[in-house]
Each structure stands twice: as structure tokens, then as C-alpha cells.
Amino acid sequence: MKKLMLGNEAFARGLYEAGCKVVSSYPGTPSTEITEEVAKYDEVYAEWAPNEKVAMETALGASIAGARSFCGMKHVGLNVAADPLYTAAYTGVNAGMVIAVADDQGMHSSQNEQDSRHHAIASKVPMLEPSDSTECKEFVKLAFELSEQFDAPFIVRMSTRVAHSQSIVEMEDRQELELKPYEKTPQKYVMMPAYAKGRHVFVEERTKKLIEYAETSPLNRVEISDKAEFGVITNGACYQYTKEALGDRVSVLKLGMVNPLPEKLIKDFAAKYDRIVVIEELDGIIEEHCRNIGVTNVEGKNIFGYIGEIPQSVIAEKLLGEKKEYVALNENIPVRPPVMCAGCPHRGLFYCLKKLGVTVSGDIGCYTLGAAAPLNAIDTTICMGASISGLHGFNKARGAESEHKSVAVIGDSTFMHSGMTGLVNIAYNNSNSTVIILDNSITGMTGHQQNPTTGKNLKGDPAAAVNLEELCKAIGIKRVRVTDPYKLAETEAAIKEELAADEASVIISRRPCALLKYVKHNPPFVVETDKCVGCKQCMKLGCPAISMREGKAVIDHTQCVGCGICKEQCKIGAIK
Amino acid sequence: METKSIMIVGVGGQGSLLASRLLGNVLLAQGYDVKVSEVHGMSQRGGSVVTYVKYGDKVYSPVIEKGEADAVISFELLEAARCLPFLKKGGHLITSTQQIDPMPVITGAAQYPDGLVEKLRAAGAELVAVDALKLAEEAGSPKASNVVLMGVLASRMDYPEELWQKAIEQCVPAKFLELNKKAFELGKNAK
């Protein structure tokens, strides 16, 4: 049967068909749907782990136990999981193990634009890269075979375009596999120096064999055109852009295996043409490899640079000098940035922080939007968990002057991911820091995934729920309190008191995400136009449901969920 | 057949992902190679949302760029204006006349431009402007304006009615099926 499938959905189908048994991941755009989709198959055990490191260790454990396993993450998640990755390269696998890492060229939804191929090279773990949904499924199935053949975990590199584009996939049956026998083999799985030295020798030998495989693998293919003006070497989504922009004007070497790279295959292809252009997004890894193996007629980064995507228009313009014609209105069209939703519980908290002029150490999640106008409340955003540890460092540097006017903000899921250890540091190393956990009972930004605080698992079944108050107390924080961000006065008072206190404190700002299905909404509020004086106090909240029309505030009834913070904010009582 | 490109644009929460999937399923059933591309992550948070649908004998790039779209379907007027440059010369622009203020307009940092329908027409776009929100409310829910606009598109594409009906059944939850079929019908019959 043929079906239109997202790259991520096709990836999940590949896991299913390959007989994968154990899946553990942490959500992160654009990788999330792989795990959500595979969880729909009853034959596969699938879970959300608290972070990517735990997920990868779980998958490796399952592989050693004899089951085909998988873990998925976004590019920055692989940094968190780098520790197990670099040693899993040495242990190798028992049953096949596949890792998805989804890069975000163009930074559609990420804090940096790192090229994950560097991790594959540095850890000496082989990496495949599909260019559409059909290849996602095929490559995943092949990756399991190769993982077992070469005794290595295999990374499959995704990108936003491949992950989030649908194309046609032919579905096949699942291959049901017996568990492979587990035998205690310390020289393979106990990576203490004596054994690890032996495994490093194995890793280097394995890389040589993988290069040999890459020379003739069906993953790497040459498409010769009789009309070719020059040759292109490319990978992933760039293959599709190249075919669209250049068609039969070039011959193409498409690399589906991006680590390790072949040598003879590239040299033979390059020898056919005077000019070779490497079209690869982000870093010039293939291009550098070409130079390293003595191919000199190569260019790429001098034309395309290191930033963002290289879609067909860029290729056509840079290589052919062709530009499409179009018309635009001669008009200033206001931008439409993403905003916190109407009724978002984060809004009330950020309004209070802005009002108090507090320095805010931020984190990764929906609440990063608190950095945008009109709230402009956040000072820093680095990576998962950095709000808490960053605040600690900030306060150690500036002392009491900073301690009484700075806070960290972090979501419930991010706190479980890597915020807890930062809080341990605050308690252990005694900084008078104030941490606010924005507990909206879900992992919001990636589209509502369960986490260890929500009381449900990935499949939606009841699960143990971490008690945040008790956890913070157990860590050593004595001042722990819960507030409701829909109550502005209460929230403001709590922040003031905890900032004034002479010891570390945690405020749990608790209210479920307004988009959760089980959250009951109040009827929408209305502005009594004759009472409204147009003072715009309500506008300071940055609620997308409130706008000014002819000098008076108006509430959009289709968006308003009746959270009531504008009502509290309106001192003349014009909002009912 | 040479590849055709349709862009569906709107504001996060308006249902452009469902519309693009619906259209993708119709084209798949028609026997084309199809690619549908979406960018997730920010889609529920009131930002601009853009999806691409491309079809033909063989589709390569899933992305549509400036000057490439045979049709742009917009759920909101300002987004139609923003995406006008993506339209090919002689391409069709179908837009809802609904207006949703973006945050810079809400905060007073920018103004929502006046008279966009006339300006788009003056710019040479083959324009169909429909009050899709009103028709959707008539069908039973403001959330169905995406399917209303698919109805408008269907009336301008020559594909069998049953393909559209089947695609709606595939993409819409059963309890909203009747409502969406009505929304589709109202869109098809819109002027």
C-alpha cells in the first residue's frame, strides 16, 4: 500500500518493519514525530526518557540485551547524549542499534545550527542521510542490518526538510525477530582501560571496512547525464534541490552514507569533469574530504557559505545566474512572530517579572517567547537547563546585588531534563538564587509530550509522577512555594518575597497549558466599551486576543479562554 | 506533467497543516508524485505558518520559493500579502478576507495595512477573496475555514468530487465530518 508520509513517520515505519523492539527518546523539533509515530505500534516498546543521555543509554542497554533498539533526538540533544555515544562506538552492539539525529538547517526551531556530522566523525560512528520519506524507511532498515554486520551503532541524520516533508512510501510487513542471545563479554562491554584499548583497535579496523563498504554501497550512487556541464557531489535534502535546479545539466554523486566517506568513488567521479561542485548545507565536510584525498578541482563553500539552507533558487542563482521573477506589494507588511497563546499561563508570570525589572535567566521551551515584545522579560537563553546553573554563576559573580533581583525560569520538562542538577549546585554551593519552575504539566513547545511530572507515559497510560515540591526540598531547598500565574497580585508578591529572602528558593508557578484538551476554559471576557478609557494597561500583557479598535480595547471571543489576567489588570473594571 | 506548486499559508492554529494533507491525499489518489512540506514547532503559537504542496510526474524539492507557486491559498489577508512574491506570473491567489492582528500591530509598533484586497488585485494577482470565516461559522465552526478554502480550490481544479470527499474523510475526525463536508460545499459554491 502506498501512503503519503512525513519523513519522521516513514522513519518510524522503518523501525517497525525492521523489527525494532525498544525505543527511548527525548522530544525535540524536528525529531519528535519519529517516536510519537512508532509508539502507535503495539509490537514496539516506546518511551520518553527524561533526557537524550538516558535515552541513548537505554537503547544501548536494549541492544546489548539482544533487541533491535532506537533512540531519537534533535541536533543539540546529541550533545547531551555525546557521552554514551563516544563509548558505544567502542562497545558496538549485540542486536542492531539506530540513532536519529535531526539537524535544523535554517534554525526553524532551534538555538544553534550545528552540523551533527562532526559528532559522527569524532565518535567514529557511521552515519546515513536520507533525502526523502522513501529513503527514510529504506535507510533505517538497512542501518539495522549494517549495525549488526559491522558491530556499530548507526546514526541516521535527518534535517527539518526531510523530517517534515511528506512523500510517497510503500508499506511492507514487519520482520519479527527473536532476541539475540546475551553472553557476558566484559572485553566488549566493560570499557575500562584494559578492554577499551582492545576495542579502540577494533574501531579503527571497523572504519577501514566501512570505507570499503562505502565505495560500492547502494547508499552512494552516481547519476550520469550525457549533457553534464560539470559534476555535483551532494547529500540529503540538497540532492532534491540540486535535481530541481540543475536537472540533466549536471551529473550527480549522491552520498547516502555521510560517515565514513568513500575515496575511490569520489576520485573516479571527480576525474570525469573539469569542475566539481559540492552542494552540502552547513559545514564543508564532504568538500574538505575531497581535498584530503587529493581531489583539487572542487569548490562549494566559496559559493554557498556555511549558513542556512541551500534551496533550488540559491543553486540556480549561484551556478546558473538565473533568478525567478515575482511581484511584491509596495507596502510595509508587519511581521508575525510566534507568541504565547491566549490564556498561556506563562504570560502572567512574565508580566510580573517585567514589572519588577528582574534579570531573568531563561531556558528552552514555549516560555522562551517571554523574550519577545511586549514582555521583553528574558536576559539569556543558552541550552536545556542553563537557566538555573547560569543564574548560579551570575550570582556568584555579582553577589548580593544580583541575588535579590534575578531569577531563573525553567519549564517542568526542561527541569527534569537537566535543570535538577543545576538546582543541586545551588543548594550544595550555597548561592542565594531564586528559581521559578513554570509547571504547565506538559512538554509544550514540541507539541504536548508527556514527561516524568505529568503522571502519564508516552502511550498515555498512568505513570509515576515526580512531586516537584518534594524533589526540590530533598535537594536541599528549604523555601519552596506554589503560585498560580493567573493571579497577578499573588504571583508578584511571591516573587518579591523570595527575592528578598536570604536563602535559595524555588517558586513553582503552576497552571496547565491552556491548549491541553482536559483544561476547561471560562467563557470569554468582553470589554465594556463605554467604560474603557483606552489606557492600554491590558495591552501590556501581550495577549493575542486583545487589540485596540478606535481607541478602545477589544477582546477576540474566538481566542479568549477567560484566564482573567486582563480583568485583574484593568483597574477601572471595564473587562467583564 | 511538469511539477505544479501550491502554497497554503495562514496563522498558527488556523488549520493549514490539515488543509495541505487533505490536498496531498487528493493529488496522491489522482496518481501524481506528491510532496507536502510543513514546518512544525512554532505552528500553534500564532506565527505565520507556511506549507507547500507540489505534484507532477516526479517531484524533487519539497520547498516552494519566490516566483514558483501556481497558486497561493491564504487563510488570512495579511499573510496573502506577505506571500504574494511566491506567486508565479499569472498564478492564482485565493484568500480569506479574515484579518488577524499580529503582535507588532497589537502593541502599536506597526499598522495593519488598509485595502489589501484592492492592492493585491492591482498588483496583477488572479484573486479570489472569500469570507471563509463567515462560511465556516455558517457550517458550524469557525475552525472549518480551512476546509471552506479547500472547497474554493476544488471548484477551480478539475478532480472528481469523490476524491475530495474521500480525502476529507481521511483527514477529519469522524465527529466533525458532517460539519466539514458542509464547509467544503459552501466553499465550492462561493462566488
State the helical fraction of chain A: 25-40%
Average pLDDT over all residues of chain A = 97
Tally of helical segments of chain A: 22
Spatial order of strands in the largest sheet of chain A: 3-2-4-5-7-6-12
Task: Assign an overall shape of chain B.
Answer: globular
Number of helices of chain B: 8
Protein chains sharing the most extensive interface: A-B, 60 and 61 residues
Task: Please indicate the percent range of residues of chain B in DSSP E strands (runs of 2 or more).
Answer: 15-25%
User: How many strands in all of chain B?
Assistant: 6
Low-confidence stretches of chain A: none
The unreliable regions of chain B are none
Task: Quickly give the structural class of chain A.
Answer: alpha/beta
- What can be said about the biggest beta sheet of chain A? 7 strands, mixed
| Average pLDDT over all residues of chain B | 93
Query: Whole-number radius of gyration of chain B?
Result: 16 Å
- The SSE string of chain B, one letter per element, is EHEEEHEHHEHHHH
Shape of chain A: globular
Radius of gyration of chain A: 27 Å
Beta-strand proportion of chain A? 15-25%
> Termini distance of chain B?
29 Å
Assembly annotation: heterodimer
Task: Describe the structure in your own words.
The complex is a heterodimer of chains A (576) and B (191). Chain A has 22 helices and 21 strands. With 576 residues, chain A is of the alpha/beta class. Chain A has a 7-stranded mixed sheet. In chain A, strands 9-11-10-13-14 form a 5-stranded mixed sheet, with helices on both faces. In chain A, strand 20 (546-549) and strand 21 (552-555) form a beta hairpin. In chain A, helix 11 (236-246) crosses helix 15 (312-320). The longest helix of chain A is centred in the middle third of the chain and has 24 residues, at 193-216. The radius of gyration of chain A is 27 Å and the shape is globular. The N and C termini of chain A lie far apart (55 Å). Chain B is α/β, with parallel strands linked by helices. In chain B, 39% of the residues lie in helices and 23% in strands. Chain B has 8 helices and 6 strands; from the N terminus they run E-H-E-E-E-H-E-H-H-E-H-H-H-H. Chain B has helices at 16-29, 77-83, 103-106, 116-122, 132-139, 145-154, 161-171, 177-189, and strands at residues 4-11, 33-38, 48-56, 69-74, 87-96, 126-130. Chain B has a 6-stranded mixed sheet, sandwiched between helices. In chain B, strand 4 (69-74), helix 2 and strand 5 form a beta-alpha-beta unit. In chain B, helix 5 packs across helix 8 and helix 6 (145-154) packs across helix 8. The two termini of chain B are 29 Å apart. The interface between A and B is large, with 60 and 61 residues.
